[in-house]
Task: structure prediction
Amino acid sequence: MSKKNKIYWFEGVTEKGVKSLLTDENSKYRWLRSQRNRRILVILMALGTALVAAGSYWPTLKTDLNLSDGTSVVIYSVTAIFAVFAVLMGYLFLRISVRGIADAPDELLDERQIKVRDTSFRYAYYGLGYIVVALLLLMNVGPEVKLFQPEGNDGSFLIISMLFLSAALPSMILAWRERDI
Amino acid sequence: MLFHMSRNPEEPVYNRIEEARNSLGLTRQDLADKVGVHYQTIGYLEREEYSPSLVLALRIAKALNQEVSGLFSQTPFKKGK
Result:
């Protein structure tokens, strides 16, 4: 038996990692696999991603936060790091909750799993398409309504949240739709 | 089309996988190992929530010592037959 752990660079997974998730050998994550808990995780991920995206707009909203003040910069940065870290952890749990099916290559899945993975990607493609169009519209009207300003609002958190969403959306859809994983 | 076939309530594919599996004393995991799928997929098949490909249907029939036509049908099976 080969001990070599094949790395799937394009999918960002390893053979042993996916096989370990597909079996029930790691029972400590079993609680994540009920549909209810998976759906709660999806909602938390959506809220977390929205919170990270809001990091691009927070300083420009009518709040007391003034990023020319040192304390405010620290509060803003710590909150942003915490939000990004929380979403990253949520993404890792989400992958575990769907047994890594959304990111697994064909050769590690059976025909039904391939079908549900591909369906999730199809919906994720539509979803991301709508979001990108909405963001392009936002960028078009943004300067007029002063959504984009130099102080702490260069759109970087928006880009980070989009990166999270593009990686996590297939798993989120899979986690939401499937009864048994 | 395949996706719709698998979940279309108007075109279900009925099967007797659970009955045949139980008669051989196999668990879902045992059958899954024999035909090379995940045990959850056997559950989906038995609940008739997923219709297998022809290749998988043939593999299941072979593993359960049955003919495909005796295991799968487009009309419901009569109980005890």
Observations:
- Chain A is about 60% helix and 0% strand.
